[in-house]
Amino acid sequence: MLFNSLTFIVFFVVVVALYWSIGSWTLRKNLLVVASYIFYGAWNPPFAALLFSTTAMDFWLGRQIGKAKDLRAKKRWLVASVCMNLSMLGFFKYGNFLLQNFQWLVARVGIIYQPPHLDILLPVGISFYTFHSLSYTLDIYRGVLQPTRSLRDFVLAVSFFPQLVAGPIVRAGDFLPQLKHPPRLKTNQFLWGLALMTLGLFEKTVLADTLLSGPADRIFGYAGPLVAVDSWAGVLAFAGQIFFDFAGYSICAIGAALTLGFHLKDNFRFPYAAIGFSDFWRRWHISLSTFLRDYLYIPLGGNQVRPFHMALNLVIVMFLGGLWHGAAWTFVVWGLLHGSYLVIERIFRIFFEQKPWSGTLPVRLLAGFATYSAVCIAWVFFRAADFTIASRMLTGMFGGHPNGDMILSTRELLQIGIVTAGVIGMHWTMREESFETTVMRLPAWAITAIGSVMAFAIIFTQGTSNAFIYFQF
Amino acid sequence: MRSFISNFKERLRLPRMFFRRPSREEQIHGGPPLEFERPIPPAPWRGIAVVITIVVTAATVAWELYVRSLGYGPTLNDNEDLWTLRRRAVEPESLVIIGDSRGWYDVDLDEFQKGLGKRPIQLAGGGMCGFPVLEDLAKDESFHGTIICSIVPRLFFAPPGTPPFERGAKVVKRFHNQTPAQRASQYLAMPLEEHVAFLKQEELTLDDYLKNLPIPNRSGAQISPRLPPYFGTEDRERRSRMIEECANPNGELARRIQQIWLPLFQPLPPTYVPKDVFMKQMGEAIGKRFRDIADAVTKIRARGGKIVFVRFPHSGGLKEIEDRDQPRARTWDPLLQQTGAPGIYYSDFPELKDFQCPEWSHLSAGDSVEFSKRLVPHLRAALKM
Questions:
Q1: Could you say which residues from 218 to 247 on chain B have a Cβ atom under 8 Å away from some Cβ of chain A?
Q2: Which residues of B touch A452 (CB under 8 A)?
Q3: Closest among A57, A48, A253, A50 to A137, alpha carbons compared
Q4: Other beta carbons less than 10 A from residue A93's beta carbon
Q5: Number of domains in chain A
Q6: Are residues B38 and B77 in the same domain?
Q7: pTM of this prediction?
Q8: Is residue B125 part of a domain?
């Protein structure tokens, strides 16, 4: 079920109305579990059973970790949980990818092996809910969370419908405490939740789908060489599209959760105003970057190791982060590029961070521009279906096709330019504060006017129920 | 004294997190408890919500009245979910219409039902290559009904990767992969679309208004030609009818659409492939398509199914282009020859050949009924009914 669909509107109205009209907290939680499974089953009902089985397994494994007397036993149960989750992810998401690479590898030594093509349907949002669930056993092992006694509460923590399929990745430790006491219906909180949902839908349907997705799709789908202007326009369009698509989903999820009385953390914090790549990853897909930091980077040694190992850790983490997004080498290259960016940034810091000029405005602006440009170059690998397309795009971007084709209309170029300038300008304006602070500064009439324009624009665009990009992950 | 704003900013920057010894109740859910509360910007939210609701409702009503004043009326959007709804209605012995928009606009389902004894299921569509649908029906082992297949050579022989083929492939894919949520959304959308005129995807959306902005393009830019504007209505059976405003061949709308067909039916070859290579590739693709069509037809006929190809009327400058670029001798004749299936070419029959298409490609709603009535005896003969 997509947030930008009529089915969701009806579903959401019914769920919210029932939820706030029921007095019993237990019944309300049961309702949310049922609603979340309907929400998920609306894509493919059998996968709801898969979701439940992995959740139930982690619930049981969490209890075993909690009960285990010594560290070795805890570790054994944790390994079981990690293997169970990752093998599920591996089978559904990486099965064919692994087989294809195995075929390529054995062919290098002269063995002709034709693997069967596994007709595997990827359960939507499997990467997200696997991480929701995995955070539970990892946190119990780390000693920061006690196993819950309620299977129902854990099922709800993993499957809570606003964040189930495309994040934010909500850790069980952040959600379970919210199930202690029933939230009260607070009008302002409820209406703010609806306002966030409107903003999220506006970002998705108007900015991402209407203004940017068409040019981005055409440029990345074009089979011929393109001139630099069109190549860059396509990349900038995709940079904007993926931000508005994913941030829009996250904001919708946060808003929907708020209307039900739950608090989810920010997943984006004005990332295109990042100065440097560490800063970028503190602002982009925060729930994933903190997950990788806490459960992978720090256990690998984090910053507390020798510089070479730290660099290696960064590259390993970003390599896996890239692979998490999809079973393709283009995603791996995207991850490795970001890993390299982080390493280069650390080297720069060693030499230049203490210089008096390093904090001046021109240098910060220049660093911000360089960060955004490098992020855009990495997006080429994220969006391109294969390396041929990525290579053609990069060649075009750096002037390698002076006689290439021009396929975007002037109107599309203007659209991309205006939206890109707008998003970068807004991110720089708000980079030091929260979105809520910005809203707080606005007079009521301005909030009303902006809200009206966004709501009407959503109706005006009508939407075509395009799936959110991150659903495929 | 610190201002309210600075206090608030502090709260926003430092979400309320605190650690303490968890109570027994909290231990049930995990501890130490990490509590986080999203800040709610202070504003008169109740009043804002009321005003937004009133403004948006008023703007929507005004928008609806405005588009009705422009001549738009409520009609269903033709999308893959509506198509899937009809595809699901196909039974083993169904009578099915597939192909392009001529088989979609020019067929009256009532007349076919009267004349052929079965109500046909309309699976043809605008700008659609019917081959993916034909292939899918051929793969459906249970299907042994009758297919009426509309042929516009530029569309039916379009190779994979081109828009006509992808439209056909897309609906077939949706039929096989439609989720319960997509199905539910279609059922919810239909009553709305039947009563609200502005709900027209690809016509009255922000995107379409932006496309119509008079901004000149760069010289040398290869910009895809526009698709024709709204000129028909559609019901739940996917029966399409040309609107009255378009039925006059000298009317503004019909003349505008006539000029839109011309670039659409004469696409330029890609610049990045040498012309001779491209022509060779096209020749190979068309040759393969002939073989694939013959295979599909053989499969359907082997199960007792029937198929008839139909060339529907077209007129004016569009007919000249089609006759020049896809002459009958290179498309229609080999199609019948290689498949061994019967065919009805409208201009072969005096009672069918004089229909005029107001916008050169489709019959008016009135003519589609008369044409269907006259086509029925030929279909009966071709299908040996």
A1: 218, 220-223
A2: 51-52, 55-56, 59
A3: A57
A4: 22
A5: 2
A6: no
A7: 0.88
A8: yes
